[in-house]
Amino acid sequence: MLILFISGFSFAGMSQNDLPDKSGKLVNDYVKLLSRSQADQLERKLVAFNDTNSTQITILIVNDLHGYDVGDFAQRVAQKWGVGQKKYDNGVIIVLKPKTADSKGDVNINVGYGLEPIIPDITAKRIIENEMIPRFKSNDYYGGLNAAVDVIMGLAAGHFSADQYDKRTRNDNGFGNLVPFIALIIIIIIISRSKGNNNTMGGGRRRSPSLWTALWLGSMLGSGGGSWETSGLVEVALAVEAAASVASEAEVSEVAALAEAGNQTHQGIV
User: What's 204-238 look like in SS3?
Assistant: First the structure.
């Protein structure tokens, strides 16, 4: 996906010097993305939760992942800092690298193994997609972080379950519910064009995408991720439109790859 939130990997050849040192705070904004009052509000909220619940939530904001995937980076920092109680491995770390003029934004919620039954990977992914990325796209970084923290706290405290959150967000996400219908319309357009444009000037035949290619391209509309640049829906729609008029299957494959790349920039951000 967005990037997968928890990933296994080898530490061989990796330097701990690339990771920031642990501070005495739960909100670690190394790029001054948040205002002082915003950082203080989040800090007070996280400290109060840490004092009343066994779960510790930490936020890290950096401008460089040093070449690591954001999931790898988050897991390394969590292990270096010892986020959560070691006995229960019940810490959560949110790592955010804001979007810049020459790089996409990345965000990850890394959940300790002890909390995975309560906050599974798919739920962490949905928190990013539903609470964070929409606000990040509007440059409301505080709002995205605060909303994500509220959901994580609610899950960890047992106020609602991951299933309840997933159902609620699926019902609330009106646009997300329209995606299958949009994909279906695009597929119908492709198929109808392929029937209406079989003959070209000079008696030759122009090859159009097969039904399976159309279905695959349409399915790309439903995927998500943990980074943001431009709207994945617009990118894929344009790629599908281009695919309808290409001259060979090789070109169709190339456009399909382009569509996938465009959709991944919506991943997991703006």
Answer: CECCCCCHHHHHHHHHHHHCCCCEECCCHHHHHHH
